[in-house]
Every structure is written in C-alpha cells, then in structure tokens.
C-alpha cells in the first residue's frame, strides 16, 4: 500500500454544545477533504501535549500514512481542554465522547465512520462509549481495559482493597494539577491552571464511599449488559498486567463480534511492550479499521476469536525482557475443560477430586501481614520488580501444596478455580490463592492469583460477616493465565491471609482454619488449538526519540526493621528530564511512595504517595507536588491529600484535602 502524506494539526479546538472547548491533536491524511477518510478517536485525561505524545507519535502518523485520520482529544480539565475533570468514566465524560464522535463524523474530511481506541482509560471508555451506541462509531480497539469496574480495576478486587487505589488517586492529582501549555492556549494558561487546581477532586474520597459493587461501579461496566456492545471489538491485554481477564471475558460476553489477543506484556501497546515477543499492532489495527470503517474486504473478520501467548515455564528475574513461549489460536472460545487436583492425606497436591465426606483436616493459617512483598504492582509499566518476583519469600508465610514432579508438560489457558471450606476466627478476613510454577531448582514463578474478602464470599453487592467458628464454603476464581508447566516442574497452590502491599489488611487479623480435605484446584486445559505465528513489528524501536537532559531512575526496596518490628515497601520512580524536539517543552515526573506495616498489627498500616511534576521552557517553569495518604482504624479508613503549585519556584497555590474518616464496610 502506498504511503500517504499527512499533516499534524497540533491543536484544534472542538466546541461542545455547552460551550466548553476541548483540545484535539489531529493527524490528517493529505487530500482528505477531496477524498474523505475514516477517523480513529482517542479520549484521555493524560495530556496529548506531553503525557501521551510518545505513544501517539508512534501510532497516529502510521495510521495517517494509511489514509486514516487520528483524533486525540484531552478530556475536560486536562491538557489544553477547558473545565475541570469530575471523575472517572462519568456520564458527562461519556456524553462528551458521543458528542465528539458526532463532530468528527460531520467534518468535511470524514467519511462518516469513526473508530475508538485506547489503552487503560482510553480502552475503558472505548467500550463504555460503544455501549451507548453513537451512530457513527463502527468499531473499537480496547487495550488493557476492563468490563467490570469493581473487580478488574485499581480499586477493589473481590471485595479486597487494592493499594493501587491510593497510588492512582495520587497519580491523578499529579496529572490534573498540571497547567495547559501557554504556547497553545496563550495568556489564559494561568487562569485555566488555577481553575483546575481549585476544582480538581481527590478521587479516593468518592471511591471509598462505594466499597460494595453498587450502582457507582455498575455504571461503565459493560458486563452488566454485554449485548449493549453491538459493534466489532478487538480486545487486547498482557499476562504481566492486572487487566488480563478482559479479553476472554469480552469474547464470552460480546460473542462473535469480539476478538481477543493476549500476549506476555505489561501495561503497554503491543508494538513496544515488554516482555517480548511483541505484536505488529499497527498492521493489524489498520486492517481492522479498513474493514470496519471503509468496508475493505481484507479478511480481518476471520481472525480466530481468541489468540494467546502461552508462557513456557518462564523464570522470575530482575528484568524480563523476553519470555519463552508460543502463540496459540482458538477459532471459537468456550469455557475450557478443567483438570482437577485435591490434597491427599500426606499434603500432596494430586490429580483428582476431593473425596466426598472425607474426615475433616483443619489447618490454621495466619500469615504475617507483610506476606506479599514479592507480588509486584497491580498494573505494570516495566518488566522489572513491578512484575511478580520469585515467590519463595511469600510462600514462607503461606500454606503451600505441591504436586510431585510432573511426568510431562501441562498446558493451560483460562481462569483457575480454588474451592475450599474454612472457619474464621473473626467476622472477616482476606484470603489469597496463588498458582505457582516450582522449577527443579526451587525457583517459584507466580502464574496466577486471586483474592477474596471473606465477607464477599457470596458476592460483592451484599457482603455478609463471618460467624466465628462457623464453616463456610469458598469458591475463588483466579485471574486468567496461559502457561506451560514443564516436565520435572511442580505445580504449587499457595494460600495466605495477607498479600501486602498489593492488598490492604482487614481490621481483624485472627487467621482462618482451612479444611484441607475440602481443598480443590481446577486448572483450565488448553484443549484443542492451533499453533500460530503472530507477526512482530518490523521496527524494534518504534517510539520517537526526545532530547534527554537527565536519565530515568527506578528503585524498589523492602526494608525490614527487626528492632521496630516494622516493614517498609518503598518505591522511587523518576521519568528523567526530556525535551520534545519540536515543541521545546521539558517535562519530568517523580513518584515517591512508601507503605509501612507491623507484621502483627493490621491497624499499623500506612501509605503515602507523592508526585512531583515539572514543566518548563526558557523563562517559564512550573511545578506541582501532590501527596495522598491513607491509614486505618478498626472502623475507618483515614485519608488526606494536599496539592501545592509553584511558578518560577514561588508557591502560588495550595489545596488541602483535610483528613477524612470513611467507615470501613465489612473490609
């Protein structure tokens, strides 16, 4: 296909019906007004001018060269757009998205067909807007997203409270506190900046007000009604990311209109993600858009319904640049057959079903509260210690059950399930189950995990406290995986009552009695499949190069103060100072985060996350510092935040979100 010339429109104002102007960056194919083209729309609060410019510039010029316009719009109150953000995936945001799609379709350069695309936030709202059925929206590509906002995002997981909730609240304070670029908005930049500084919310206040899966979380969760999405959806994720469940849930729910692609990746676009192998996202996306936005007969609709990379006995490492494995395809996805295991009388994990009515064999489990420091991040951006590391340290505080060394390779694809019966010693508690590959040398790779707040054992909408001493049944569905356990390896099931700092502790930490005789593990067999090749990108380094003034730095540390009986988990992430070669804008972000806990006191838990964000050009410098904090009592979550802004090293603004106590709801 001949490459087409294009023009980059650095900023175009799009006026909404209420008078608000949103800022768009547009990549326009040459000759579009004479020969109208389809358009791909992305709608984010992450700042087109600097926050997402690298990845935008790796993709939208390629689309434009293929005759597809790219329209990247900043959500209200972000980047150069007017107004103040009002939350995540709000009714106003989604209504704005529908209005923008109508605006794009009505332009003289548009052929009237629009696609919507994005990763994370943009992947979420692509599916959410699709469910609203704006007429011009013909297809979506959703990457690292969710169909269930309560259970598969950074807030809660099966009723457990994710530490990522604080991290993300601090991140959004940092992102939303930054000003627009004066080079685009002119003298009103400071007025706009002060408006958003004064008006931006501390998202965590709202998130903590909804600790159950209520209407707040059902809004925007297309799993509530998959039939609302009636256009083709390509849904992509990576096994190293927290959003790994979405592709298979999407094809199960949406049906034949959806296609799933799951690679070994962290939370990145497939053409530059780690670990490798990567996928040629550009070629596949262009074919997708040409089919559904142009009507081109290119066969993309005949893709297998599910394609997945099966990790082949990978090892944890300080950095995983490439993972061993192989690609498989299933023309039609259906619930897999399960291979079942139980724990026999000597504690060995053995193939078969638990023996009905077997005599009970209770074992008391009470993990140290700092069990979980090998868990990594919920969503990962780099293939280092953000990913789960060797699990032996976490297994030391867990109840573990191993098979004998395997006589042959075992291949799985889907969601493992753990079933068991237990008795609580308190009215609540958390339980974590991990599927682990134990290598012949003892190295332990986490394959999948699941957690449950035991008060949510029968659902997340109406939790019920445990009755101490009363036996209850637990069915815990782990996150999806695609994995080969090799001959000579052992399959391990690890159980713990703590998974910190990923999961915050319950108010009571009295442990549980697990009936080992009831314990079952069901693993999803790969079953019938085709081995395939997934084309890798021709360019191994597709991101543009900016001018480096100071390099990036990252550090993760676990510090155990034995004298003080205190464990700290410390994160230092610095992006480095980089200058855009065309705009001259220099940016730098620094994240400092620390979580602390005493291994025997759940009420000792604290977390602090601070973002420092710099922007400058010669003669102009701004900095914002956003800090969010959380602590707890037996009855309350205790949160606070502060945002401070500087112009030329002079403080011009401070907003304090005073300490707020929010009642713990069976957490």
Task: Report on this structure.
This protein has 667 residues and is an alpha+beta fold. The protein folds into 3 domains: 6-152 and 236-305, Alpha/Beta hydrolase fold, catalytic domain (Rossmann fold), CATH 3.40.50; 160-210 and 546-580 and 584-667, no CATH class; 338-526, Galactose-binding domain-like (Jelly Rolls), CATH 2.60.120.260. Helix content is 16%, strand content 39%. It has 11 helices and 34 strands. The strands form 5 sheets. Strands 1, 2, 3, 4, 5, 6, 9, 10, 11, 12, 17, 22 and 25 form a 13-stranded mixed sheet that branches. β31 (601-617) and β32 form a beta hairpin. α2 crosses α3. The radius of gyration is 25 Å and the shape is globular. It starts with 5 loop residues before the first strand and ends with a strand. The mean pLDDT is 97.
Beta percentage is: 35-45%
Compute the number of structural domains: 3
Level-1 CATH class name of the largest domain:
Alpha Beta
How far apart the termini lie comes to 57 Å
| Sheet with the most strands, sense and barrel status | 13 strands, mixed
CATH architecture of the largest domain: 3-Layer(aba) Sandwich
CATH H-level homologous superfamily name of the largest domain = Alpha/Beta hydrolase fold, catalytic domain
Task: Work out the number of β strands.
Answer: 34
Q: What is the name of the CATH topology of the largest domain?
A: Rossmann fold
Helix-and-strand structural type:
alpha+beta
Question: What is the molecular shape?
Answer: globular
Ranges with pLDDT <50 over ≥5 residues?
none
Count up the helices: 11
Nearest-integer average pLDDT = 97
Helix content: 10-25%
Q: Tell me the radius of gyration.
A: 25 Å
């Amino acid at each position: 296909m001949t490459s087409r010339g294009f023009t980059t429109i650095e900023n175009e104002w799009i006026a909404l019906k209420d008078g608000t102007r949103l800022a768009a960056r547009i990549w326009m194919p040459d000759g579009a007004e004479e020969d109208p083209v389809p358009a791909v729309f992305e709608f984010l609060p992450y700042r087109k001018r600097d926050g997402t410019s690298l990845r935008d510039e790796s993709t939208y010029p390629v689309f434009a060269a293929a005759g597809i316009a790219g329209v990247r719009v900043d959500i209200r109150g972000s980047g150069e757009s007017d107004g103040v953000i009002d939350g995540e995936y709000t009714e106003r945001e989604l209504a704005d998205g529908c209005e923008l799609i109508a605006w794009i379709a009505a332009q003289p350069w548009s052929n009237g067909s629009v696609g919507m695309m994005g990763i994370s936030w943009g992947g979420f709202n692509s599916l959410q807007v699709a469910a609203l059925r704006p007429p011009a929206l013909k297809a979506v590509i959703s990457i690292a997203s969710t169909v269930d906002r309560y259970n598969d995002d950074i807030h809660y997981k099966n009723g457990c409270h994710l530490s990522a909730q604080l991290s993300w609240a601090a991140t959004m304070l940092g992102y939303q506190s930054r000003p627009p670029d004066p080079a685009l908005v002119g003298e009103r930049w400071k007025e706009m900046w002060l408006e958003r500084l004064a008006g931006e919310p501390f998202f965590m206040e709202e998130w903590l007000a909804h600790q159950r899966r209520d209407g707040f979380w059902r809004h925007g969760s297309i799993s509530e009604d998959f039939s609302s999405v009636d256009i083709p959806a390509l849904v992509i994720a990576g096994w190293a990311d927290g959003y790994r469940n979405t592709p298979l849930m999407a094809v199960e729910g949406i049906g034949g209109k959806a296609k799933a692609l799951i690679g070994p990746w962290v939370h990145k676009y497939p053409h530059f993600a780690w670990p490798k192998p990567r996928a040629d996202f550009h070629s596949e996306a262009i074919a997708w858009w040409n089919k559904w936005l142009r009507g081109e007969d290119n066969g993309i609709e005949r893709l297998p319904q599910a394609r997945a990379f099966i990790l082949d006995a990978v090892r944890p490492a300080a950095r995983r640049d490439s993972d061993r494995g192989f690609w498989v395809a299933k023309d039609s996805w259906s619930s897999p057959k399960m291979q079942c295991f139980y724990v026999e009388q000597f504690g060995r994990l053995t193939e078969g079903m638990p023996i009905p009515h077997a005599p009970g064999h209770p074992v008391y489990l009470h993990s140290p509260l700092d069990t979980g420091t090998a868990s990594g991040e919920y969503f990962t951006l780099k293939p280092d210690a953000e990913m789960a590391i060797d699990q032996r340290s976490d297994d030391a505080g867990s109840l573990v059950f191993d098979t004998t060394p395997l006589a042959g390779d075992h291949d799985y694809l889907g969601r493992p399930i753990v079933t068991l019966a237990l008795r609580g010693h308190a009215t609540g508690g958390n339980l974590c189950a991990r599927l682990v590959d134990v290598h012949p040398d003892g190295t332990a790779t986490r394959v999948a995990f699941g957690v449950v707040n035991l008060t949510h054992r029968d659902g997340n909408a109406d939790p019920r406290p445990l009755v101490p001493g009363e036996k209850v049944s637990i069915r815990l569905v782990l996150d999806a995986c695609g994995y080969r356990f090799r001959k000579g390896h052992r399959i391990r099931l690890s159980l713990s009552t703590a998974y910190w700092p990923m999961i915050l502790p319950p108010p009571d930490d009295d442990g549980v009695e697990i009936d080992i005789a009831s314990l079952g593990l069901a693993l999803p067999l790969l079953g019938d499949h085709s081995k395939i090749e997934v084309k890798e990108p021709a360019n191994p380094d597709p991101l543009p190069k900016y001018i480096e003034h100071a390099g990036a730095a990252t550090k993760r540390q676990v510090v155990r103060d034995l004298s003080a009986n205190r464990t700290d988990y410390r994160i230092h992430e610095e992006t480095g100072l980089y200058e855009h070669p065309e705009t001259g804008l220099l940016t730098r972000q620094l994240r400092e985060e620390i979580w602390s806990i005493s291994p025997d006191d759940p009420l000792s838990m604290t977390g602090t996350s601070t973002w420092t964000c710099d922007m400058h050009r010669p003669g102009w410098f701004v900095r914002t510092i956003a800090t969010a904090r959380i602590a707890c009592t037996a009855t309350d979550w205790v949160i606070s935040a502060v945002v401070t802004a500087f112009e030329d090293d002079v403080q011009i603004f401070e907003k304090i979100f005073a300490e707020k106590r929010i009642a713990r709801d069976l957490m």
